[in-house]
Specification:
Blueprint: H1 3-21, H2 26-51, H3 57-70, H4 79-100, H5 106-130, H6 146-163, H7 178-204, H8 212-311, E1 316-320, E2 325-328, H9 330-336, H10 340-343, H11 355-368, E3 370-379, E4 385-396, E5 402-411, H12 413-446, H13 451-481, E6 485-493, E7 499-507, H14 511-515, H15 525-528, H16 534-546, E8 550-556, E9 561-570, E10 577-584, H17 586-625, H18 634-660, E11 665-666, H19 668-681, E12 690-694, E13 700-701, H20 702-723, H21 730-734, E14 739-747, E15 750-757, H22 774-786, E16 790-794, E17 799-805, H23 808-811
Parallel strand pairs: 12-14
Antiparallel strand pairs: 1-2, 1-5, 3-4, 4-5, 6-7, 6-10, 8-9, 9-10, 11-13, 14-15, 15-17, 16-17
Helix pairs in contact: 1-4, 1-6, 2-4, 4-5, 4-6, 5-6, 7-8, 12-13, 17-18, 18-19, 18-20, 19-20, 20-22
Amino acid sequence: MAFSTSVLLILFGLILAAGSIRPFKPRTSLGIQIAMIFIVVIEVIELPLNIRGDHFIFESQLVGIGNAIAGQPTSPISPFTLILVILSSAALFLLMAGLTSLRDTRARDIAGVLGLIVALTGFTVILSYLYGAPLTYGAGLIPVAAPTALAFLAVGIGVVTGAGQKAMPLRYFSGDSIRVLLLRTFLPLTIVVILAGTGIEITLRFFSGPFTAVLTGASIVIFCLITGLVVYRVSGYVGNVIETARREQRKAEEDLRIKNTELEAAFEEITATEEELRQNYDELIKSQREQQQAEEEIKRANAYNRSLIEASLDPLVTINLDGTINDVNEATINVTGLSREGLIGTDFSNYFTEPEKAKAGYKTVFRDGSVRDYELRIRNRNGKVIPVLYNATIYQDSEGEVTGVFAAARDITEKKRAEEALQKAHDELEERVEQRTEELRQRNEELGAVNEELTATQEELRKTNETLSGSEERYRTRFNALIEGFCVIEMVFDEAGRPVDYRFLEINEAFEAQTGLHDAQGKLMRDLAPDHEQHWFEIYGKIAVTGEPAHFENEARALNRWYEVRAFRIGGPDSRKVAICFNDITERKKAEESLKEALTEKEVLLSEIHHRVKNNLTAFISLLSLDGSYEDTESGRALRKDLQNRARSMALIHETLYRTGNFSNVDMEVYLKNLVSQVASSYRESERIRTVVDVHGIPLDISRATTAGLIINELVTNSFKYAFPPGFDCIVVRGEPCTIWVSLSHENGTDMLTVADNGCGLPEGFDPFTTKSLGLKLVNFLARHQLRADIEVRMDKGTEFTFRLKNTGDYA
């Protein structure tokens, strides 16, 4: 046996033995598969070289190792053995792959077949040895040693066994069928008989002489007797098994017949029962259909009621007996700013500014059965307070028991605004009356002769008051009478499915007042208003088809009105019905348009005013620049420059307002940078003096900005003129370049204006609050009487003026 064959057979045996003891882990199985692929590749390369009498490097190395171990020359592997090694390696590879995936038996089937081929080949070689012809052992082509054949027989049997009973060929020997039983009995018996006959024949070959023929004949007779006896015993065993199976089958058939008779009787009884159940089922189905129809009607009624509730522009709430919210509509969600889930289950009074007053109204409902126009205020989550008129009534269950309160809240914000506007107009009129009365009283004291004129004036005022009171009463009556319009329409579509018209099915009392359409019920909109815009039909047609509700504002030019509309579908898509809740907002739209026009006109007027003021100040500055306007002396030129800078500071305010388009507040960052730059450009010293403006994005109203500009102009001018005299070196004295700072910041609710420099500072003993200097007098006067500011002065490192400005409201 070649050394390489010995090594491979030992490896095969170890793999099969280890696998029979415990299943391989996935990584181990993968390693074995890789090793088998490697062996197959090496042996496939070796096979053609071996047939030519040559060998691959691995085989040559293994032969050398074998020679060294045996101490004498050993033979290399034969081609026949190579083929058996390749088949065995492939079988083991497929066996490992099949064991990894137990559900896939194809790999194990092929492994079992290859193992059977290897086993039969080894057995064939063993038989050749028994017959005295060991397959030309010692020849160059197929030398196979008996131990090698025996080892391959064991490897083949191990592979077949490892493949399992569910793989070929053991699959045909597994199970309890008669075919498998006969196969398990007669196939081994046939093999044993053949092997026994072969063994007797081989044994007789060792004897020769006159009794050889006799022995051969006697052995054949004895072999036939033994074979017949064995077949008799096996046939009897198999026959008993088959007879036992037949008796059990006949008994099972009789039991089955009896059971069948019983089942037929039971079936007849079940049939009668089924007929009875069918009748009961039909009655039950009929009852269920009636109940389902009733439930559908209830659902449609509930959906219709729910749609009406959701369509309301007023918040609607149902409240339990304990005061907690049971349900709300979309308008309630909008007015409170909370979700439906956040509202349900909470105390309803929590959302009013006066919870106790709300609870008192709630108790009134239970005492009187309802409450009407109970004024409360709802607080939105964002802090907005909305005045409402609270209306509520009790609701009962089917047995007449009171189960809660149904409440509605009408937003009266616009009403309140109208009342406030009316009150304001009334107060203004009263004020005018008082002023006029005072004027007349003074005139009466001065000119008694005009008493008759005063009497006439008072009579005129009395009539005016009566007219105003009547107007107020009419306004209140009309306002209180305003309620929302409501209608139910049926959409009309053309053949292409486009909405072309709609018919009014139901209308309320406010409909005619809201629309101006008379006797509209049952009529088409195209008949009532032929020029009605197409977009109204498209909006309502989309709602009727998709079922998506809509809330919008739109103009109806044919009716010469604007409307706020909430619309939703009633019923299914086939109903084509849409409910519409609407409110005429034409007056509000006109007021908005008038307000826009007034604001535009105001902005244009303010722009023109600021432009003209700036031009007038520019003309004044130009006049100051003319020769001869002041004495041509140093003091005269200085006075002219101061006046020019003061005028420029005021002109710059109006120029900033004109350029930014914001007429209420001045952009102080733009204004102060331009102002300081203008002042600096009028002095030669500005080349060596740095200016820093830090405003922090704070705006000021025009009054405070103008005053602040004049103050900054005076102080920055003083810094340029006096803070940095010749010979004063800021780097040496202050450790930094010469600088003038202007800062505007907001600290602790107060605007802080600071003007500072790092120059030589004010003279010792100099009091800026009592000085007779015109510039500082102007600063003190403007700061105290115009800005109403607190002034702080620091003189430690230069000069610093800080002004604490009052708020705009305080200033006004």
